[in-house]
């Protein structure tokens, strides 16, 4: 890709890929239905790809390229754009300097998923945070410090996202390490309130909260935080969001997404759930109360 292309945001890369694929099809004289028959893809999925809603896999783009008879230079561009769209980074500094916060984008991704699997080794997941805990988290963000107005806005946006937890058409699964539960960004009672919030939410029928205690033997090393967004629609892509210091890595390539599912499965087998998880939370709450 060009130097300019390497600096494109995720949305820009997806939009450019969608535009180029549509232009390649229309130049070939094929309708969406005709192309679908050639490559074994439904017309609705072709429409989603050309609208930038769905990101095609590398084999799908290769089949598209072959079917429309794209020249070598266009084929190379399309494959490069596809590769970039399946693993791109949202850098905190550039994203936040442009729009203040990205809670709206995260919520849009959450609304497009029927099942969300979150692993957190270092901090309570955002969907479970209390307002006070969230404030301390955002205040500690060093890449782009929040001003007072931005801080109030981003906290409100994070809390608004939590309304999705009460939508029983969606399933949420959380894996949280004891280290994340013990990370204390403020006074002991702030953390005690946060742990109590997790315990309360764990009773929701569409939530499963698994905790990974220090006392449990580890089978795989804890990795960075990640969230898998799964759709029940076969024509919509699953997505993994990986949290890093400088930004979010978004993974769409199916074999890579499957690698995160396997890691999730390995971790989940060592977690405690239900009453056992709530007992651990209550023990930690008592420990915080004793510090006061």
Automatic annotation (TrEMBL):
Domain HTH cro/C1-type: 21-74
PROSITE patterns: HTH_CROC1
InterPro entries assigned: Cro/C1-type_HTH, DUF5753, Lambda_DNA-bd_dom_sf
One Pfam family here: DUF5753
Annotated SUPFAM superfamilies: lambda repressor-like DNA-binding domains
Protein name, entry field: Helix-turn-helix transcriptional regulator
Source organism of this protein record: Dactylosporangium maewongense
